């Protein structure tokens, strides 16, 4: 998923490290990898016995309208995963506030998207929507 990609965090943009070593979930039986890729249809329960050895999990978002990755992030955090959790793929700045709300630490996007939706756009979305989430939490039931 890398190849000139950009990582978005609250601190701004950073370049993806090409040597991070993410491996597909199917590689778990071969070795205990430090970083795992999850697809939207993958069952996070398959990671349960390995969560202590995994430093990072990257969850794929194949299209911006597929929100299953947000559910995966929430499930992984509820399972006790304490490592770095990255949403990767077709996300847009307006979706960024949902990422940390579900447990993601960062978002990986393609360089061409980063050129269209600048670092300022992502930071503005994060600031604007955190207030929205706070208002939702405070709304009477």
Quick overview:
The chain has helices at 68-78, 98-102, 111-116, 119-138; strands at 6-9, 12-15, 22-24, 35-38, 56-61, 84-89, 106-109.
Characterise the protein shown here.
- With 141 residues, this protein is α/β, with parallel strands linked by helices.
- It has one domain: Alpha-Beta Barrel (TIM Barrel).
- Helices cover 30% and strands 22% of the residues.
- It has four helices and seven strands; from the N terminus they run βββββαβαβαα.
- The chain has helices at residues 68-78, 98-102, 111-116, 119-138, and strands at residues 6-9, 12-15, 22-24, 35-38, 56-61, 84-89, 106-109.
- It has a seven-stranded mixed beta sheet.
- β5, α1 (68-78) and β6 (84-89) form a beta-alpha-beta unit.
- The model has no long low-confidence stretch (mean pLDDT 86).
Radius of gyration computed on alpha carbons: 15 Å
Structural class: alpha/beta
Please report which band the strand proportion falls in: under 5%, 5-15%, 15-25%, 25-35%, 35-45% or over 45%. Answer: 15-25%
Strand count, sense and barrel status of the largest sheet are: 7 strands, mixed
For the largest beta sheet, what order do the strands appear in spatially? 2-1-7-6-5-4-3
Number of beta strands? 7
Number of domains: 1
CATH architecture: Alpha-Beta Barrel
Distance between the termini: 41 Å
In which range does the helix fraction lie?
Answer: 25-40%
Order of helices and strands: EEEEEHEHEHH
């Amino acid at each position: 998923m890398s190849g000139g990609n950009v990582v978005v965090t609250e601190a701004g943009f950073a370049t993806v490290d090409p040597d991070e070593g993410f491996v597909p979930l199917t590689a778990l039986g071969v070795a205990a990898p430090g970083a795992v890729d999850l697809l939207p249809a993958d069952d996070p329960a398959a990671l349960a016995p390995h969560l202590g050895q995994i430093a990072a999990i990257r969850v794929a978002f194949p299209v911006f309208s597929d929100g299953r990755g947000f559910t995966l992030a929430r499930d992984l955090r509820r399972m006790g995963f304490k490592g770095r959790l990255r949403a990767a793929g077709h996300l847009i700045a307006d979706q960024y506030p949902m990422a940390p709300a579900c447990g993601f630490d960062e978002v990986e996007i393609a360089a061409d998207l980063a050129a269209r939706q600048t670092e300022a756009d992502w930071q503005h979305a994060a600031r604007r929507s955190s207030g929205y989430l706070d208002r939702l939490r405070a709304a009477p039931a």
